[in-house]
Structure formats: structure tokens, C-alpha cells
Amino acid sequence: MTETETFETIRFTADIVVVTPDRQVLLIERGWDPYEGHWALPGGHVDPGETSRDAAVRELVEETGVHVTPAALHQLGAWDQPGRDPRGRYVTVAYLGTVPAGTPIVAGDDARSAQWWPLDALPPLAFDHADIIATV
After folding, report:
1. pLDDT score of 62 more than 60
2. Does 106 reside within a domain?
3. What is the pTM of this model?
């Protein structure tokens, strides 16, 4: 590496799309910047020593009170488009989980609120979360 070469700081996150058999998706209202007050998928940073799958499960519980097992999740893919997050370069691995209709939710952690939304009538979403949901 030469003196003129630099490395970009990349942060690693996990997001989770939780749906019900009747085509509802679980979203949180963000309680912090960026996109404070906007709707988003549950998710967050992958902690040291943690897999992205385990982070998705942990973030789901912290932000919505919903429990799923890591084995029940299906990986949807990775999203790494530069500029997808105004804080810098973020790469996320997104997962899909299914829970019964009527699964109770309780907003927690950094979520201002949590709500079930029809997949065909979503509010405007933060980040590139509409692109992630479109793969479901």
C-alpha cells in the first residue's frame, strides 16, 4: 500500500424483514437520527464476536419484543451501495423471518414505536429498506 492509498471505514449491520402469513410486515419508527421519525426495518450493528444472523435476532427482540430463532431465518442478501446511509459506509445483511398473524409487539430500545403494515401499503421508508422488502 502506498501513502496515497486509504481504506474506507465500513460498518457492518443486520436488518430483518418479519412477515406474517397474511402479508403484514413489521416496521419500527426510528427514534434517532438519521431518519428520526421515519419507518424502517428492525436492525442494527453487529456486535464483536456476533454473526449477522444473531445480530438480526437480537435487534428484533430489542426493538420490537418479537422472538425468532436464528435457524428460522432465511438470508435475503447483502446491501452495500455506497451512500445508503448518510453516516458513512454501511453494509447490511438482511434476513427474512415469518411469525404468526397477531404476534404482539412492544417498541423498545431505540424504536419510538413498532407497527404491522400491509406489504402492499407501506409508508415511506428510511435508508434502502424499500429495496430490501421488495425482495420478499
Report:
1. yes
2. yes
3. 0.93
